[in-house]
Structure formats: C-alpha cells, structure tokens
Amino acid sequence: MEVKAVAMVRKIRDKHYEQTKTLSVEEQIKFIRDKSRKLQEKLKIQRTSTTVK
Q: Does the residue 30 lie in any domain?
C-alpha cells in the first residue's frame, strides 16, 4: 500500500482552511490551541494505555 503524503496533507490543509476562513485571528488561535490540546490528550491516553500492559 502506498502512502500519498502530499495528497493527505493537502486534504488536511483544505479542510482546516474551510473551517477557519471566516474566523478572526483570535478565533483561529483558539481553534489551533483546541486542536492541539485534544491531540495531546489523545496521545497521553494512548501512551498510558500501552504502558499499563
């Protein structure tokens, strides 16, 4: 199976653009921080679940 990284990144960027194109700068910053926080929480949960075994 081939990973199409460029296409995948483009799709993510397009999606984020559509979600943020009408936001103010402050709202964009909040959007990015919220996304970051959620990802960090998800990774923390995954890390703890793999170390418990």
A: yes
